[in-house]
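Hi X.,

You mentioned you wanted examples for the new student's onboarding notes, showing what a folding record looks like when two proteins sit in one file. Here is a clean example. The first protein comes first, with its sequence line followed by its structure tokens.
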Amino acid sequence: MSRTPAPPAQDFVPFATAALDFHRALNLPAGPLVASRDELDALHAHLVSLHGLLDAHTSRTGPLVPVEGDHLHGARTRIWQAADHIHSAYHASPRPGSGELPTREACRPGLPEGAPELTICQRHQRTARLVRRHSSPADLRAPFTGQIRH
């Protein structure tokens, strides 16, 4: 295995970053605005994809450069925590059409709203299985203190 990264065929990450910046500039006006469920669903999908990218880097880098792998592992965990919060925000956001806010009790059953809103839950559950394989419960619950172990 090589410690030198191979040049990527095409680096799409800068395009994804630019697209997010462009989206924010065009679609989020100044002032208060409730995030729509569609927006939260798209953000969740983006974070889950980013989690997958960090997972691939973590598993490939960790055996070669343990310190870098440990930092990538921490970043992967934080991205999962962000996705988990977005998933919770989705279920707490106003329902389309009625605009009513769900109660806490309405969100406790496994899949409270059914299809088509179910897709965010399916994506979240698929990723949660992967997260549980690579992270301990202590990793997932630990607050980020900014202190590095190295």
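Then the second protein repeats the pattern, sequence line and then tokens:
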Amino acid sequence: MTNRVPVLKIGDILLVSIQTDLEDQMVMDLQDDLSRRIVDTGAKGVVIDISALEIVDSFVGRMLATNASISRLLGAETIVVGMRPAVAMTLVELGLSLKGVRTALNLERGLKLLRRLTADTAGRA
């Protein structure tokens, strides 16, 4: 049995704090768990905190982009927070721009941006 990344609910936002290097199965489990939690809770936003990640590979980079796309299709905006400079450089070197993925320097800024985005979306509805 693999370890699972916890998906925590804070109001209408889901918080995913990745605290360990991800194995491929953990990435796939996270994708399933997150999409189910969005549907089950009606979450309007997702924050993925990667501040503990020292390195990423192309699979993890694609996972971030895929999770953001799945979340958006399910009605939740996604913000990736806490990206280290080395991780950003690695993603660029791998040719992964994470198109469509919003980022913020830290959790506080990410939550602020997410609340603004979800408020804007609610105002247009």
